[in-house]
Write a structure and sequence with these properties.
Layout lengths: L1 H6 E6 L5 E3 L6 H31 L5 H55 L21 H30 L7 H35 L2 H21 L13 H14 L42 E4 L2 E4 L7 H18 L2 H10 L2 H7 L1 E2 L1 E2 L2 E2 L6 H27 L6 H32 L7 E4 L4 H24 L6 H30 L17 H26 L17
Parallel strand pairs: 5-8
Antiparallel strand pairs: 1-2, 3-4, 6-7
Helix pairs in contact: 2-3, 2-4, 2-5, 2-6, 2-10, 3-4, 3-6, 3-14, 5-6, 5-11, 8-15, 9-12, 9-13, 9-14, 9-15, 11-13, 12-13, 12-15, 13-14
Family: Belongs to the major facilitator superfamily. Proton-dependent oligopeptide transporter (POT/PTR) (TC 2.A.17) family.
Protein name: (wild Malaysian banana) hypothetical protein
Membrane topology: Multi-pass membrane protein
Length: 575
Amino acid sequence: MDRKASWSVADAVDYKGLPADRSKTGGWAPAALILVIEICERLSTMGIAVNLVTYLGGTMHIPSAESANIVTDFMGTSFLLCLFGGFLADSFLGRYLTIAIFAMIQALGTGLLSISTKLPQLRPPPCNSTVTGQCQRANGFQMGALYLSLYLIAVGTGGLKSSVSGFGTDQFDEKDEKERSQMAYFFNRFFFFISTGTLFACTVLVYIQDEVGRSWAYGICCISMVLALLVFLSGTRRYRYKKSSGSPIVHILQVIVAAIRKRKLMLPSSVVFLYDDCPEASRIQHTDQFRFLDKAAIVAEEDHEVKGETKQPNPWKMCSVTRIEEVKMMIRLLPIWATTFMFWTIYAQMITFSVEQATTMERSIGSFQIPAGSLTAFFVAAILITCAVYDRVIMPLMKKWKGKQGFTSLQRIGIGLSFSIMGMAAAALTEVKRLSVAREAASGTTTLPISVFTLIPQFLFVGAGEAFIYTGQLDFFITRSPKGMKTMSTGLFLTTLSLGFFLSSFLVSFVKGVTGGKGGQGWLADNINYGRLDCFYGLLAGLSTMNLGAFLVCAGWSKPRVESPEKDSCGEDKC
């Protein structure tokens, strides 16, 4: 019996529902199969996003600002749906089925996109094919086919990103020292795979889109997703499956509903009179913040319901102190959550207006012309270089000088926000130079005599910023959330990306409307050579500076509270 227990993983089962055998399930081999899904998802999503603005403008004849909003709305929806995917995984499907189902949806979306970009009926005629010489904008049916493809991909992305990282970590036992150390490497390689997939997408895939054909490139995405799904399914017998304790969203709603129902009741004089059925070892110490929620733990006879021969508490009428403290911990994440949107609004400019800038500039190296969308390769390179320097140089130096293993999560977020401000400042200065060249160029010039490599600083600054803020946010939202709500907090982190993209769409529409004037040009003109994109970038730099100030205030508020020794019994989970 002891031998059998030592080979089994306590909180995991195999595909038959039996206790998972440590020697036959989990570990690096199954985790690697899951990573294949992630790299193909990144290949599809980023391969479409980084070059979509050129297709919308050049083929579908959509104005510049509207094209940028279509891209940011697509990306924003993808990340927002992560919450929906996480809810399905936690409440109904489980992570394995969620990944399998949404991978099929992603493959279907990329397949339809390949068809929609191939068929002439699904795109307008070229500009020079009309009698008047004017470009004919894509009609409702053509845009509808494009939107159907894009938002199927968005649904697939949302479902996959909510479960891939979680299911990967399920393959390692946190209670085993060896597997716990392997899990740390899994996170590093997970981020590496994201960056590798993005790098391949914005170089090789973008080149295929521009030089061979978009339908071929999107067809490759579809085939790769199907192959990744088959690889993923091949590991079914080797995976470890962990049972969900229910949806964190439902648990949060139960606390709120119970507190509202008891809003008129008085809290007892001592917390010992509040309900808490959690084992002593897993309880979270009570805190004085958000005391209104404590009313959900007031004990009342009518809160129990008869189930069989016993009375059990109705979770919609009475919740434990530990459950309430978990909700309080999630609330404490919100100020940091709200002050990190702005970075991803700036990130959105790297795959929209910065790519449009590149299309107007000299991109030739000898006889080879760099695709405009491939400029984002410098962005990804900055991420990889920054991560390498941080791991190999900064962390060892900080450990030697200060005894700390690198920057804290909040410090990394602050550094990332600072880099984004520098990125927008560099972008504004570069645009001033590009516009001066555009004014001096002859009318009708399609390629301005200015090198596209002058855009590199803005990509490098924002790329370095992402390396800090992405890892800092992920670390903050995971370590500062309760154990039972890690998936929920990861989804909360991903919504900062979503809301950042949506904020970008709002700002573009707002600035377009305010500065458009009678001629309809303004800062964000249909042809950026006649606009003032530098002013828009300056506005983003200013807003980001104010956001950084708000973040510093929130970071001071969200630091862990130092409790007196006699009360300190729950460690980091109290913060």
